[in-house]
Amino acid sequence: MSKEPKKMPKPKGQQKKPAAKAAPRSLKDEAYDHILEGVRSGKFLPGTMITEGQLSTKYGLSKAPIRTALTRLVQDGWLEPVSRRGHRVKPLTIADARDLFMTRKLVEPFTARMAAGRIDPATQELLEAACDPDHENWQGMDPEPAFFAANKEFHVGIAKASGSIRLADIVGFLHDEAERVLRYAAQQHGSAEPNLYDDWAHGHDEILDALMTGDGKTAERLARTGLEKSERIVIEVLREKAEQLPI
Ligand SMILES: [Zn+2]
After folding, report:
1. Which tens digits make up the pLDDT trace of 141-152?
2. CA 93 – ligand 1 centroid, Å
3. How remote is the CA of residue 242 from the centroid of ligand 1, in Å?
4. Residues of the chain with pLDDT > 90: what percent?
5. Where are the beta strands (DSSP E) in the chain?
6. Cα(185) to centroid of ligand 1, in Å?
7. For residue 173, how far is its CA from the centre of ligand 1 (angstroms)?
8. Topology (CATH) of 94-244
């Protein structure tokens, strides 16, 4: 059984994505971002081994920043060290995916109920931007990461509006984990089926309406049914692919 990521994320002061081009990124950060994107996107399949040498060739970086990035990715729960062989991408099991959805179903509908009627204008603007694929916040990003960034922004925004910064942190942390699971499922989903993120708003408009009108019950119900739907798709895909996953 895989271990849970060990660290809760630190509350992020600046949530701005690529728009804010401030300080130049260090090579360590660059290595970290590359490898994390590989893990999240499913390019590095769950349960597979990755090595310093392979990563340094792939990204054209020396081994030192790669090594530092790998250590951080272990601390953050995305990789597991394997003595003298390298690092293994955190395995993805049906039990783990169920656990992730169970936690999300516990937290997110609750925050939606609590946030109803408490959406200030700034939050409304943020939530509306998250529902709009053409919004400037997502321009210049690849469609997949943009979708997940917007989705996280939406749900974390609701959790913040619920009044609990801790719940907002937990929702953000759960979304980081869910992104890998959902991207893997979307990638493995048969071509006859639409991608999970083809439907950008996937019911967010209705949730926002309920929040704005102060209808906590409806917001809670919609948040729950949305999660139940993606859980069904994910579990179905994981069942189909179970024997191909190197777990
Ligand atoms: Zn959503």
Report:
1. 888 889 999 999
2. 22
3. 25
4. 66
5. 49-50, 79-82, 86-89
6. 16
7. 14
8. Four Helix Bundle (Hemerythrin (Met), subunit A) (1.20.120)
Residue 54 Cα to ligand 1 middle (Å): 35
Q: What is the pLDDT of residues 91-127, one digit of tens each?
A: 988 999 999 999 999 999 999 999 999 999 999 999 9
| Residue 157 CA from chain centroid, whole number | 14
Residue 80 to residue 92: CA distance in whole angstroms: 12
Q: How far is the CA of 152 from the centre of ligand 1 (A)?
A: 7
Q: State the CB neighbour count (10 A cutoff) for residue 228.
A: 11
Ligand 1: distance of its center to the CA of 230 in Å? 9
Q: Which residue has the tokens 């048969």?
A: 190
Per residue in 212-229, pLDDT (tens digit) is 999 999 999 999 999 999
- Residue 110 C-beta-side C-alpha neighbours within 13 Å: 12
CATH topology of domain 27-89: Arc Repressor Mutant, subunit A (1.10.10)
DSSP reduced 3-state for 42: coil
Domain layout of the chain by residue ranges:
27-89, 94-244
